Amino acid sequence: MLSQLSVHRIAWLGALSCLLNLCSLPAAVEAASVPFAGYKSIRDSGVTPTNTSAANKAALQSAIDWAALRGAALFVDPSDEPYPVDSGLVLRMNVSIVGAHGPVGRGTRHPDKPQPVGSVFSIEDETQPFITVEGATQLRGLQFWYPRQTLSDPAKIIRYPPTIQVSRAKPAQGVTLSSLTFYGEFVAMDFNAARAQPCEQILFEHCYGYPLSGEFIRIDYCYDIPRILHCHVNPANQRFIKSGYSRAVIDAVVAARTFTYAINHTDNAVLMDLFTFGAYGGVYLGPATYGQLSNFNLDCVTVGIHKLGDGTFNRNWQIAQGSIIANTGVKVEDIHPLIIEGQGHTALANVEAFSGGNPALTTLGKSQDFLLVRGDKKLTVSLTGCRMRNYVADAPITLLNTNALIQAVACVDKQEKPFNMSAQ
Question: Which range among 7-21, 158-172, 230-244 has the greatest average pLDDT?
């Protein structure tokens, strides 16, 4: 007879099979008769919450190596106690690691010990990225917790290597990172690939955290339509398990002058439904990039979006349906919801910016302008239906590039008056 634990595990694996589309079952009851050669619980490989982190790393890497030969999935059984694991794992091709993703909160067995529960890896190793991913891989429904990370003292921030890093040794194609939550990370997901080993077909979706470097997702040499969808970066995320980050720590993140989402050397990127709070920069769109950015909220930043371009062909970004609250920095002159320079075209539609105070961090409450256009090369910008508030300049657009073509239609300035502009 099957034990109760075995029945529950079979039920989980049955759900997992449907999630991964690796097998088809006519009814859940038939799962008990199916040999699950394609799935393996990490506990069956010797990974447990009571092991040392070194022992768990060795066992988990062994399980990954087993799965790589079979194109199999590893299941991280949910637990009230996280799994301590040393860094340096390699997620080899054709392997998926899938968890239950929650619930988030205090463990029911230890209500006096705040920590995430569910499918959680506890990380203390400061020497290398926690896990390096190769191609045709998947991480889904997992939580990554750094229990030693400071919440209050910026001088004690631990500069952990990235939690997830793309392989620098071989090209990585077809990587899915979905429903991941990070607590205390320094850099969450580093997909700055090597130029000779680019990555392609990368999907980030439904990921949450607050990196103390300010960098949540960074991409370089990532071609063939990368996607960043439905990601939420907020220091309040930490409050689910402990008190939130202090104002001093959030100010230190802003002072790092980094961007939450940074895109470089990337073709036809799609960024949709993105949020960040308490960072120097929201989204950086590097010189050799083009794509679409829509449905965003960039809150309490110094620079909302910084768009560049290194040529006139395919260096165009369509940016629409978003709000930017640019209100923090050393001085107001540094605060710009939007900066555009270089070459190419930028289309802005229904983008609004306003400022104000927020007790979670140090704010100046205003921005210098709505849009700063600088440089000396020909570029073009169109604005439609944009609302501009709380800037100190006389005009919402600061034009420092005499070769720029700017057209604004049906916009509204800080005095709630119509703003239309054509300048070349």
Answer: 158-172
Q: SS3 of 95, please?
A: coil
The two tokens of residue 161 are: 């290597």
CB 42 within 8 A of CB 16: no
C-alpha 75/C-alpha 68 separation (Å) is 14
- Residue 110 in this model has a pLDDT that exceeds 70: no
C-alpha to C-alpha distance for 72 and 40, rounded to whole angstroms = 8
Q: 35-41: long-range contacts (C-beta < 8 A, 24 or more apart)?
A: 36/10, 37/70, 37/72, 38/70, 38/71, 38/72, 38/73, 39/13, 39/72, 39/73, 39/74, 39/75, 40/66, 40/67, 40/72, 40/73, 40/74, 40/75, 41/9, 41/74, 41/75, 41/77
Q: What is the mean pLDDT of residues 6-34?
A: 40
Q: E strands along 77-160, which residues? A: 83-84, 89-91, 96-99, 120-122, 131-133, 137-145
Alpha helices in 168-317 (DSSP H): 247-255
What are the distances in angstroms from CA 292 to CA 191, 203, 319, 408? 19, 15, 6, 19
For residue 332, CA distances in Å to 166, 378, 388, 392 come to 37, 27, 16, 8
**Mind listing the pLDDT tens digit for each residue in 315-362?**
999 999 999 999 999 999 999 999 999 999 999 999 999 998 999 999
How do beta strands 379-384 and 404-412 pair?
parallel
At 102 the pLDDT is 58
Helix, strand, or coil here: 332? Answer: helix
User: pTM for the full model?
Assistant: 0.90
Cα–Cα distance between 244 and 258 in angstroms, integer? Answer: 21
Cβ–Cβ contacts within 10 Å for residue 405, how many? 15
Structural domains of the chain, ranges and CATH numbers in brackets: 1-36 (no CATH), 41-423 (2.160.20)
Count of positions (residues) in the chain: 424
The string of pLDDT tens digits covering residues 234-258 is 999 888 787 889 999 999 999 999 9
